[in-house]
Amino acid sequence: MDFTADEGHDEIRQAVRELCAGFPAAYWRGLEPSTYPEEFVETLTEQGWLAVLIPEEFGGAGLGLTAASIVLEEINASGGNAAACHAQMYTMGTILRHGSIEQKSHFLPKIASGDLRLQAFGVTEPTVGSDTTNIKTIATRVGDGYVVRGQKIWTSRAEHSDLMLLLARTTPADEVEKKTEGLSVFVVDMKAAGDALSIRPIKTIMNHATTEVFIDDAGISRHHARITITAGGALLEDLGSKNGTMLNGSRVPGPTPLADGAAIVLGATVLKFRTFGAPGSTETLTVQGAEEKNEL
Predict the structure, then answer these.
(1) CB 161 within 8 Å of CB 122
(2) The pLDDT of residue 292 is above 70
(3) pLDDT (tens digit, 9 = 90+) per residue, 71-87?
(4) With CB atoms 3.0 to 4.6 Å apart as the test, which of 12, 104, 256, 258 could cross-link to 237 if both were Cys?
(5) Residue partners of 187: CB distance under 8 A and separation at least 6
(6) What is the DSSP string of 161-196?
(7) Number of other CB atoms surrounding residue 49 within 10 Å
């Protein structure tokens, strides 16, 4: 394996170091105990560093994980806190990997430019801990959209995000064959939700801006593809879970096998996957058109 440094990576490292030099230790100390580093995040955004993983066609740099890792490494090495904004880099991966062209075109350029912040995702719940498949948040189909009710905890940066990826059950657990089925991801416009969504900060020993989120009959419209996915195991791994259990460590999206029989609903197209042999072995794909699907 070749570990030779890429010249482009050295340029990235130097550029981020220079940016961080404008935010010395005194800046970060001044934020304690709970102020968000707004000026620092805006500067990173303006220079394009939080969009390195977004493809060029959607306004990003189209770089790889090594480049993204260098950006975060240099922030932390300078004495800063990359956790304040690292999710703006990778949370969009769910849309990029599973979204329709309409969804990608609608969200990704705005995320790349910083016009929209997508750096919050609601997965963990206080009553189920890391057993993700037993979440209690429910999305009920009403008319041309959904109404969501539930509670999330340890949702970091919710106060500083315009959008949130939300994991909810669209089919009750006792009505599915596999525990990873009947789960859907929604892109929630947190500003539009108004009083139906409330955020309660959680005080921690470090400036991490984590929160508890309460969702009280929040309406989510299908307009502009606010609903991104209905799926099984691959969806959970994108959100940091594996086999229904939350993973420790990085949540940067990477190649993951789909659960046997998982259904991903993207607009009017349903992709159905069937796995043969051992988990993670070859998958085959069948595409069928659909106006509406009851499994949602």
Answers:
(1) no
(2) no
(3) 999 999 999 999 999 99
(4) 256
(5) 95, 103, 107, 118, 163, 164, 165, 166, 225, 226, 227, 228
(6) -SEEEEEEESS-GGG-SSTTTTEEEEEEETTTTGGG
(7) 24
Amino acid letter, residue 121: F
Residues 286 and 219: their CA atoms lie apart, in Å, by: 32
Give me 195's structure tokens: 């009083």
CA nearest to 228, candidates 218, 216, 240, 238: 238
- State the burial class of residue 294 (Cβ atoms within 10 Å of its Cβ: 0-12, 13-18, 19+): exposed
Q: How far are the Cα atoms of 53, 138, 244, 247 from residue 170, in angstroms, in the given order?
A: 30, 6, 16, 23
Q: Considering only 21-25, 150-154, 181-185, 267-271, which range has the smallest mean pLDDT? A: 267-271
Structure tokens that stand for 187 in this block: 């892109």
Cβ atoms of 233 and 180 within 8 Å: the answer is yes
User: Helix, strand or coil for residue 107?
Assistant: helix
Distance CA 91, CA 104 (A): 13
Question: Max Cα separation, the chain?
Answer: 57
pTM score of the predicted model: 0.75
Residue 212 tokens read as: 């508890």
Residues 6+ apart with CB under 8 A from 29: none
